[in-house]
Please model this.
Amino acid sequence: MELEHHVVLVHLTELLLEEIQFFLTSHLQEVVLETTAMVMILWVRVQTEALEVQAEELED
Model:
C-alpha cells in the first residue's frame, strides 16, 4: 500500500514538473519576443536620429 502511494506521488510530481516546465518555457518565449521587439524599436530610433544628424550636416 505504501509503495502504491509512493508511485502515485512520484507520478503526480512528474506531471507537475512537466506543467511548470511548459509554463516557464511559454513565459520565457513571450519575454524574449517582447525584449526583441523593444530592442528593434530602439535600434530604429537610433538609426533615425543618426540619419537626421547626417541630413542636418549635409544642409550646412
Notes: The chain has a mean pLDDT of 92. The CA atoms of residues 9 and 46 lie 55 Å apart.
